[in-house]
Amino acid sequence: METLFKDIRYGARALWKRPGFTAVAVITLALGIGANTAIFSVVNATLLRPLPFKDPERVVMLWGFLPKMAQTTDKLPSSAGNFSTLRDQNHSFENLSAFRSWAGN
User: What's the alpha-carbon Rg for the chain, to the nearest Å?
Assistant: First the structure.
């Protein structure tokens, strides 16, 4: 245990004598810890934590389809009018909800 305290005092003296190196080391550690925390927060919120729904395995996504545009895209977002019609005439799903993508799609 005494050797550990001697090593810590030696390291502290060495860092105190070189403030430039100490600043670079502290900034590097701060950036690394901050980036790790940010990445973990995103992964935890999107991949690790369960969805806030009763039966998340039953959640599905509906897309629109236009046969004339089949060569350019197979998935089209639904308009507000189409969503209202789907919701009013729904006999297959327990509930319908709409959302807007952040990606600008």
Answer: 28
The CA distance from 69 to 74, in Å, is 8
Instruction: Give the integer Cα–Cα distance in Å for 105 and 96.
Output: 20
Which pLDDT tens digit goes with each residue over 79-102? 788 888 888 998 888 888 887 776
Residue 33's identity, in one-letter code, is I
Beta carbons of 77 and 61 less than 8 angstroms apart: no
The answer to whether the pTM exceeds 0.90 is no
Cβ proximity of 78 and 62 under 8 Å: yes
Question: Which candidate, 87, 61, 90, places its Cα nearest to that of 75?
Answer: 61
Amino acid letter, 34: G
- CA torsion sign, 91 to 93 to 94 to 95? negative
* Phi, psi for residue 76 in degrees, rounded to 5: -125, 140
